Amino acid sequence: MANPRRKFLLKAANFHELKGLEIGPLNDPLVTKEDIRGEGQVFYLDHLPTDQLKEKYQDDASVDVDRIVHVDFVCRDGNMVEATRGELFDYIVASHVIEHVPNFLRFLTDIQTILKPGGHCILIIPDKRFTFDLNRPVTTFGTVLENFLTNIKVPRVSAVYDQAGMAINANGHNLWHGIVNAEDSTLLASESIAWEAAHRVHGESYYYDVHVNIFTPESFFGILKKSIIHELVFFQVNEFLDTQMGQIEFMVCLQKPEGAIISDHKLQCLASVPKFEIESLLSPYMPQVRALSNALENSLQINVTLHNELEMLRSNSQNEITRLRNELKISQAMLARKSVRLILFLIDKIHSHFRK
Asked: Of the N and C termini of the chain, which has fewer Cβ atoms inside 10 Å?
């Protein structure tokens, strides 16, 4: 596990002693069976069995098919309650999963069902401000509610079209440091691909694996808060790590309340949802602001230097003009003298005589 993720996970749950489930680990699980040193257990859930995952990703250079983990629970239709066959877990981990889920609220309600009371759900979520989703609007509660009430099982036309037609070749490092490269704004796909894919979804209900849910930390917790208000789910926010400088993801640990008093759960859960002050909302953009500020300061310094050089040139020019005027006055004064005029007259006569 990468250090920030491991640190967050260890703070959220003791996987050495508890029974856990990781969703969509593929070839890079956050919790490996080798990690566990005590009495703990970890199980893996994915949308296909292991052999079919290896077949699916055999031509994908980003996936080492030999390291794809053994899948314990297969969930083809998004129903994790049926897929896990009545098993309950102390903790559930999902890294870069919920953005792909067509029915996000169904995902949360299933997690709530298969977690033990007091259990934890650890989510690692891409922050759209630093990914290829930069230009896409955040997902609203109304959208996830519609997907929940209509029980959709594949990404909608809108999600498929928007990813193909709006996802860009954004570079997280550049976005963090205010660096502007022309390549970063180019589309990953194209408008024509977006059009064709949208019609295939509409005509065949074809499943495209795209980012259905687009989050920032604030928008994620906004959806969670409304879900609690409308009593769809009850989760208490146990830990939250905002997107760190240079990173593209934020981390959340949700806890399922213990006991059966809904009114108490609701108040506790709502009170735990982080409130975002303006400083927090702007903090991820501070590196860009600093970069722009430095660029502006450099421009001002260059402007001052050029202004000083111009003033020096003006001053030097004025001095040169004054010098030439003084020399001209002296010359004119000399010519104005009678002796000088006489000498010039004689020189002219002598010159004329010898010329004859």
From this structure: C
